[in-house]
Amino acid sequence: PATNQVIDSVMTGKEPQSMVVDKNEKLWVLCSGGWMGDEFPTLYRINPQSLETENIFTFDDINSAPAWLCANGNADSLFFINGGIYTMPISAADLPDQPLNAPETHLFNSLAVHPKTSEIFVADAIDYQQKGLVLRYRADGTFIAEYRAGIVPGRMVFAVK
């Protein structure tokens, strides 16, 4: 780190978008597949010690746009947005085929999961011109509340003590 030199690397799908570490210290990398749908989006599970790819999950639709990979507070479930909010246990053999909840009129553009409560927060840009919303859900997808935000709300972080 003091020399700013790359010390190792691992191959992933095209355009890695976000990553998390699970409770087993496995690295999960969500790859978009490219802006123009060059490749199918993928989700990689990587052993960070050996740098070996343990599993590659490939999305069925080349035009899908999965993003904002997060883990719950126990780091045993993953969340991402791909139109709706999707979740999967880290032990899953396949990608989920149904969203936890489907947006009726929302345009989800970012996602965060509270590290203690595992509540899900998604930002809705609405039309990218007016003030957006932040929607709050329980881990099971039950709606809790919505909050007004600024124009195109994006990254969310939590101050946890």
Shape type: globular
CATH fold topology: Methylamine Dehydrogenase, Chain H
pLDDT averaged over residues: 93
Q: Outline the low-pLDDT stretches.
A: none
Find the count of extended strands (DSSP E, 2+ residues).
11
Q: Specify the structural class.
A: mainly beta
Give the helices and strands as they follow along the chain: EEEEEEEEEEE
Radius of gyration: 16 Å
Strand order of the largest sheet: 1-2-3-4
Roughly what percent helix? under 10%
CATH class: Mainly Beta
CATH superfamily: YVTN repeat-like/Quinoprotein amine dehydrogenase
- Alpha carbon gap, first and last residue: 28 Å
Largest sheet, described in full?
4 strands, antiparallel
CATH architecture: 7 Propeller
Number of helices: 0
Binned strand content: 35-45%
Instruction: Tell me the number of structural domains.
Output: 1
Key terms:
single chain, 161 residues, mainly beta, Methylamine Dehydrogenase, Chain H, 4-stranded antiparallel sheet, 11 strands, globular
Task: Walk me through what this model shows.
By secondary structure, the chain is mainly beta. The protein has a single domain, classed as 7 Propeller (Methylamine Dehydrogenase, Chain H). 0% of the residues lie in helices and 42% in strands. The chain is built from no helices and eleven strands. The strands form three sheets. It has a four-stranded antiparallel β-sheet, with no helix packed on it. A four-stranded antiparallel β-sheet has the order 8-9-10-11, with no helix packed on it. A three-stranded antiparallel β-sheet has the order 5-6-7, with no helix packed on it. It is globular, with a radius of gyration of 16 Å.
